[in-house]
Every structure is written in structure tokens, then in C-alpha cells.
Amino acid sequence: MRLSWMPIWITDLTAAVTRLWRRFDWLPEWAVIGLVLLVFVGGGWLAHKLLFGILRRLVRKRDVFWRGVVERGRIKFRILMVLAAIGIGVTVSPMDPLPSAQIRSVLLFLGILTAGWLAAGVMDMWAVVYMRRFNIQTEDNLVARKHITQTRILQKVAKVVIALVTLGLALMTIAGFRQWGVSILASAGVVGIIAGFALQPVLTNLLAGIQIAMTQPIRIDDAVIVEGEWGTVEEITSTYVVVKLWDWRRMVLPLTHFIQKPFQNWTRETARLIGTAVLYVDYEAPIDRLRAELERICRESPLWDGDVVSLQVTDITDRVAQVRCLASGRNGAVVFDLRCDIREKMLAFMRDQCPEALPRDRLALERMTEGKGVTSR
């Protein structure tokens, strides 16, 4: 009667095991249960071996994605088949109904977790194969950075969603935790309003991650200025961004920071940049000589990309003139080094060959008006 809700073949198999046990009634119940489980687990193991042998032959000439899925899923699918074999074994064995139902409940819980693990593995394999199409090490890597950023963010968001759905479905199989599973699947928290508030930052960052993946204000390897620091985007997870600063420190920021606060992205559309080096020179500085020297420095520098070079007087104070040197480079790191090179060589030029360009203090002595002077005593 306890098997009336099960498929006919399970009921028939149970009856066959019972008839066989009656022929060997000298065996204790625990021994029969052990033998049944051993037979079914061994059968599941052999079925797994045969199935994956066939699958390997089928995908041998297919693309790397399908070959990778088969290899990554081999162990996980073996666990699923063993769990299913144990479930069938305890069902058809002469085990009492209550412990049999409890074991099946535990097996179902573990099976759902393993299925989620398998789905996450398939997602990882797809991401790896897709990102192999793009080479981020090339000079002009804008397209590669765009696709790799989208893939990594969506991969992490998808894995979080798979984990939540898997955990929710698994908890729904346990009577005492069924409401927790429903709450997780409904994104309403784990235990009511308190857990909902606790999950709010996580969900906010997940939504921010999806928005960043779609609109891409930042990408992997972007040169950015954030919180007053210059660095490159090293890693984007489902909740935070790691920025590698120029001195190799790491700044970790939540994803929402790049949605809610302003920042500078030096490589938003292209990796090329124009760098600025500001000099302060005397009023008598020969601007044409300084401009010619800047052009010579850039022509001889391997850091210059051959495009933009310019020198302009951008301001005049009560003591000096402000001169701005502009030069372009391939990317942010190269431009930073080019700016430092320009400052160093322009300073050396003014010191050694053009001293009249160096700022000086002046003291003007006016003749005293006739008829006025200092009376000596």
C-alpha cells in the first residue's frame, strides 16, 4: 500500500525482491537491504560508465564546449546516478516505510544540490569557452574587454541565481524548512522581514552588476580614477570591483559605487589618451623654443603614438606664465610615463640650454623724486 503512488515498475520490482527474500528467508533483513543497495549502486555505477563512454564518442569531434561539458559533468552526474540508485534501492528493499521515506527525502535534497552544482559547472564551461575567443593582451583590446566584462559579471550573477534557486528547491523538500525555500525563491529573504533587510545589499549589488554588464561604464582592464586614486580595473565580481592602483595596492569598491557616484574612466571608448604636463616659466621664456623642444622630445620617445603634440600658454599669474604640454599615447599607463618623461626633459632643457625660461623674482628700484630724499643727521 505504501507504494501505491509510485510507478508500476517500482511496485513490480518491490514485489519481486520480496518473493526472492522469501526463498532465502534465513537472511536477516539488514543483509537483504544491504545486498539490494549494493546491487543498485553497482548498477548505477556501471550505467554511468556506459553512458559517459557513449557521450565521449559522440562529442569527440564536436567543439570544445560540448567536450568540456561532458568532462566537467562526469563526476557530478555520477553522484546523481548513485543517489538515484540508492533511492530506488531503499524503495524496493524490505526497509520499513518511515526510515525509507526519510532516506529518500535526504537523497532528494542532495540530488537537487548536485543538480545545481552541475548547472553551475555548465555555466562556467560556457563562460570559459566564450572568453577564449577574445585576447585582452592585444594593444587595441576594447572589444575584448567589453565581452569579457559582460561574460564575467553575468556568469557570477547567474551562479548566484542558480545557488539561490537550488537552495530554495532543496529546502522545499524538507517539511520544517519548506517556508524558507519558498521565501528564498520569492526573493523575500530567509526568515521574514529581518532576513529581507539583510539580503537587500546583496540584491542591490546583483542588480547593479546586471546594469554594469549591460551599460558597461567600466570594463576589465579599464584605466580609472576613483576616490582620487588612479588604477586599472582588475576584477569585477557579482558584488564588488577590485581596482589595482598604480602602486600595486588594491581598492575594493561595491558595484553600486560605479552606478551612484562619479568617477573617471580613461579608456571608456578607446585606450588612447592625451596626457598633460604643466610647466611654470618666466615671462621672458621663448615659447617657440620650448614648443620645438617638446616636439623633439615626443618624436624621439617610443611612448608617443605620433598623433597629438602641442604646447600652449594657458594662464599668466603675477609672477609666472603657465604652459601646458599635450602629448598622446597608446593607453593610460603609457601616457602616465610619457608625461613624466616630458616634465623631466623639459626641466633639463630649461636648466641647461634655456635658463631665461626659469622663473625669477624681480625687484624694481625706482629713482626717488627730485627734491625728496633722506636727511642725514
Strand order, biggest sheet? 4-3-2-1-5
Q: What is the H/E string? A: HHHHHHHEEEEHEEHEEH
Roughly what is the average pLDDT, rounded to an integer? 78
Helix content estimate: 55-70%
The count of strands amounts to: 8
Q: Which stretches are low in confidence, meaning pLDDT under 50 for 5 or more residues running?
A: 1-5, 188-199, 368-377
Main sheet characteristics: 5 strands, antiparallel
Name the overall outline: elongated
Q: Structural class of the secondary structure composition?
A: alpha+beta
Oligomer: single chain
Q: What is the alpha-carbon Rg in Å?
A: 36 Å
Q: Hey, roughly how much beta strand do the residues contain?
A: 5-15%
Note the gap between the termini: 135 Å
Q: If helices are DSSP runs of H or I spanning 4 or more residues, what is the number of helices?
A: 10
List strands and helices in order, with pairings.
Layout (H helix, E strand, L loop, with lengths): L7 H16 L5 H31 L4 H29 L4 H35 L10 H30 L6 H8 L6 H24 L7 E4 L2 E8 L3 E6 L4 E5 L2 H4 L3 E2 L7 E9 L5 H14 L3 E13 L4 E9 L2 H21 L25
Helix pairs in contact: 2-3, 3-4, 4-5, 5-6, 5-7, 9-10
Q: Could you explain how this protein is built, in words?
A:
There is one protein chain. The protein is an alpha+beta fold and 377 residues long. It contains 10 helices and 8 strands. It has a 5-stranded antiparallel sheet. Strand 2 (229-236) and strand 3 (240-245) form a beta hairpin. Helix 4 (97-131) packs antiparallel against helix 5, helix 5 runs antiparallel to helix 6 (178-185) and helix 9 crosses helix 10.
Condensed summary:
The protein contains 10 helices and 8 strands.
